[in-house]
């Protein structure tokens, strides 16, 4: 079966074709996917030997299902679980008509899993803030130019360009902030060969140059 045939079957709601496409993209990350469609709902279960990062997996699955445009599916249930464990580490419900995320806490998880769930929620909120900033990128550049013209001309800056994949975006931004770098602008881009394209953020950072006073 060709890749085109698999895609066409997936758009028709064939669960095996949908699972094949997702597994092709996620197996390199150690994640396997199971798909189930019941009535107006589709359930996607991701399994891995370690806890799957919730924000990354939800973002990938949500975008993948949206691209298929399944006409009868209105709700998306996403679960992340450890291989061999029937109880999910975390669960997420998405209403595909309103695109509202409804987090569901698994009360059967131990305290460590609950702590990770809370951290993931914080990261999701942080990511939403960053996405909002990126969508206003053009306005941000205009404001930056006006602000730059008002800065003292004696200030000198070092600039740096970094690219972050979705899965390391949050940690990468925190690392740059800890090193004193300030985000100037960012844009969404794609990288990798056509068969394995993935989304990244190309970011420009700056920080004041460190000047040393030479004394004779």
Give a written overview of the molecule.
With 216 residues, the chain is of the alpha+beta class. 39% of the residues lie in helices and 30% in strands. It has helices at residues 3-11, 15-26, 54-68, 111-135, 137-149, 169-178; strands spanning 32-38, 41-48, 75-82, 90-95, 100-104, 157-165, 182-191, 198-208. The protein has a five-stranded mixed β-sheet with strand order 1-2-3-4-5. Strand 1 and strand 2 form a beta hairpin. The radius of gyration is 21 Å and the shape is elongated. 19% of the residues are buried. The model has no long low-confidence stretch (mean pLDDT 82).
Question: How is this structure best summarized?
Answer:
The protein is an alpha+beta fold and 216 residues long. The chain is 39% helix and 30% strand. The protein is elongated and about 65 Å long.
């Amino acid at each position: 079966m060709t890749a085109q045939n698999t895609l066409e079957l997936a758009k028709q709601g064939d669960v095996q074709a949908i699972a094949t496409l997702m597994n092709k993209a996620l197996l390199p990350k150690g994640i396997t996917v199971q798909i189930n469609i019941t009535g107006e709902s589709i359930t996607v279960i991701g399994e891995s030997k370690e806890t799957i990062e919730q924000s990354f997996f939800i973002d990938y699955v949500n975008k993948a299902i949206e691209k298929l445009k399944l006409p009868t599916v209105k709700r998306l249930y996403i679960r992340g679980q450890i291989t061999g464990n029937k109880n999910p580490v975390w669960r997420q419900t998405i209403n595909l008509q309103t695109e509202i995320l409804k987090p569901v806490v698994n009360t059967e998880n131990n305290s460590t899993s609950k702590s990770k769930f809370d951290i993931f929620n914080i990261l999701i909120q942080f990511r939403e803030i960053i996405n909002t900033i990126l969508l206003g990128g053009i306005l941000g550049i205009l404001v930056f130019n006006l602000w730059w013209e008002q800065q003292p001309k004696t200030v000198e800056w070092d600039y740096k360009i970094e690219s972050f994949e979705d899965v390391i975006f949050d940690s990468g931004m925190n690392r740059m902030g800890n090193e004193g770098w300030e985000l100037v602008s960012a844009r969404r881009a794609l990288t990798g060969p056509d068969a394995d394209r993935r989304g990244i953020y190309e970011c420009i950072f700056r920080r004041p140059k460190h000047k040393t006073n030479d004394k004779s």
